[in-house]
UniProtKB/TrEMBL annotation:
<keyword id="KW-0804">Transcription</keyword>
<dbReference type="GO" id="GO:0003700">
    <property type="term" value="F:DNA-binding transcription factor activity"/>
</dbReference>
<dbReference type="InterPro" id="IPR036388">
    <property type="entry name" value="WH-like_DNA-bd_sf"/>
</dbReference>
<dbReference type="GO" id="GO:0003677">
    <property type="term" value="F:DNA binding"/>
</dbReference>
<dbReference type="InterPro" id="IPR051011">
    <property type="entry name" value="Metal_resp_trans_reg"/>
</dbReference>
<dbReference type="Pfam" id="PF01022">
    <property type="entry name" value="HTH_5"/>
</dbReference>
<dbReference type="InterPro" id="IPR001845">
    <property type="entry name" value="HTH_ArsR_DNA-bd_dom"/>
</dbReference>
<dbReference type="InterPro" id="IPR011991">
    <property type="entry name" value="ArsR-like_HTH"/>
</dbReference>
<keyword id="KW-0805">Transcription regulation</keyword>
<keyword id="KW-0238">DNA-binding</keyword>
<dbReference type="InterPro" id="IPR036390">
    <property type="entry name" value="WH_DNA-bd_sf"/>
</dbReference>
<feature type="domain" description="HTH arsR-type">
    <location>
        <begin position="17"/>
        <end position="110"/>
    </location>
</feature>
<protein>
    <submittedName>
        <fullName>ArsR family transcriptional regulator</fullName>
    </submittedName>
</protein>
Length: 110
């Protein structure tokens, strides 16, 4: 059986990636290269959680969770809503969450 060929329509017709896109791509992979951030994103893929809930479920310090959430929020990978004095975080980028879930699926079945 022949290897699957990539159709030309799926190939990028551009010769170079602009600097802003390159920065966002590398920052996204940087976000996904840190185990704590992957654990947080995986948890938020299921439903929204407060900082305290995330810290409790993942056995992390609240300050660690807050620091990682700030990093993820700056990349627009998570968003939050305020309810009183509590912030509830949820996933904010379906493309990256799909990439993460596919990668987890791949790792579990490899």
């Amino acid at each position: 059986m022949e290897p699957e060929k990539i159709e030309e329509s799926h190939l990028c017709t551009c010769d170079a990636i602009d600097e802003e896109t390159l920065f966002m791509v590398t920052q996204t992979f940087k976000a996904l290269s840190e185990p704590t951030r992957v654990r947080i994103l995986h948890l938020l893929a299921q439903k929204e959680h407060s900082v305290n809930e995330i810290a409790e479920k993942l056995s992390l310090l609240q300050t660690t969770v807050s620091h990682q959430l700030r990093f993820l929020k700056n990349l627009r990978l998570v968003k939050y809503r305020r309810q009183g004095t509590t912030l509830f975080y949820s996933a904010d980028d379906d493309h990256v969450m799909n990439l993460l879930q596919q990668t987890i699926h791949h790792a579990r079945h490899h």
